[in-house]
Design a protein that fits this description.
Elements: H1 8-13, E1 18-22, E2 25-28, H2 29-45, E3 53-57, H3 62-73, E4 77-81, H4 87-96, E5 103-105, H5 107-113, E6 121-122, H6 124-127, E7 150-155, E8 165-169, H7 170-180, E9 192-195, H8 202-213, E10 217-220, H9 226-236, E11 240-243, H10 245-253, E12 267-271, H11 277-286, E13 291-298, E14 303-308, E15 324-325, E16 330-334, E17 348-353, E18 363-371, E19 377-382, E20 387-389, E21 392-394, H12 396-404, E22 409-419, E23 423-432, H13 438-446, E24 457-460, H14 474-482
Helix pairs in contact: 2-3, 7-8, 9-10, 10-11
Amino acid sequence: MNIASVIDAPSTQDPSRTALILKDGNVTYGELAAASRRVARGLRAAGVQPGDRVPVVDVGNLLSIATMLGAARIGAAAALMNPALRPQEIAALIETAGCRKMVVTGPGFADLLSPAVDGHVLGAAEVLESTDDPADDPVDDPVVGTDEDDGLILFTSGTTGLPKAIPIRHGVLSRRFMGYAPPFKPDNKANVGMMSVPFFHVGGSLGQLTGLYGANTSVVQERFDAGEWLELVARHRVTSTFLVPTMLQRILDHPNFAEADLSSLSVVAYGAAAAPKELVLRALEALPHVAFANIFGQTETLGAYTTLAPDDHRNVDLIGSVGKALPGVEIRVVHPGTEDPVPAGEVGELVVLSEQNVQPGWFHTGDLARIDAAGYIFPSGRLSDTINRGGEKFGPIEIETVLRDHPAIVEVAVVAVPDAEMGERVGALIVSKEHLTDDQVRTFCADRLARFKLPERIVFANEIPHNDTGKVDRRSVVALLSQSSV
């Protein structure tokens, strides 16, 4: 199924149904279908051909969503890029991903990107606000592209280097969202979900496609803000959403949280970064009527391949786990860089086999974890984040977990800091609610961690840097800690 066809049924059988709730107004399924056809015409006029990759640099809005569908309609694929990147970074992604030398972007980014793009910079005026008669390009015109053609280009987060382009075929995408949601039926009432994660993130774009396939309504928050999130949930009676842990924490910390009407909210999925146990327990207590699910996956696996189900959250010992493999997913734990399994219960690299893998075969995730006897997976960090202190190798999560148990520590990030003597030393960036000294931190850890795991370079800060997908920006943390001395 070409993803351009995802809205065909609701746009023809119930065109007045609301598809998107945007900051500047609602968009029906009929209007979204017309917009995607106008974008398709605009891209053709700009020279886009089947097989091309079209850079899209924008927040979630009608232009970016219609471009994802419009590009697919003519056999091209939208390459969704982070609008927070600088022009030279966008230019590098365009080159790396083999995109056309052009970009589709909103007015807030056009002037910034023009010097970096050797080609058309297309905005709403060029591709969305066409005055052509929609009858010139009727709904039932055949779309171009099959299951084996690329339907979407996403990028890895790039926390340790330049983001990597991940082409995803129509067939993989459609099987994924068709497995998440039932097909459209005119008599079924639309559920109201909310997209707060960035559109260029797999959770944003795949979430949109899933919602559209089920003919549901999506409230689109262009940029996450906890206060606005509370207002949108109450105003539009949002029933489900996906959040990264930093978003969840900011919602719970917001001064308007206690008074907000969140009675419509029934399901919150969270993931994309490690969720501290105390944060999850706090959320469960604050929102007892909500079913929480921890999901775990990557762009290369087209989102989640495990989940800690709502019922699992009743067992305190399981919080911190990312649950069990989803149906149809096979997971092994191997020695990093090999296919050799580790002994049962020990930490190794997760490798995944499933139909949702973007590329066929076993995928080495780069995630370190252990699996207990019941099949629950407990992450230990990223392989690329492993600290190698004088030959002793270990992950930062176990140190972060210990530090978060300190009553004065609000948030922490642990990283490897380059060191001439030991190769790497343990660094900790800490946000605390009261004054702490380095010695107090080390003393707290001394009975809980081996001596070689104790934090050596400690910096106290007002906040931990995160990227747009809610993950700790470890390069920034390393830079802050590298300025300190042992």
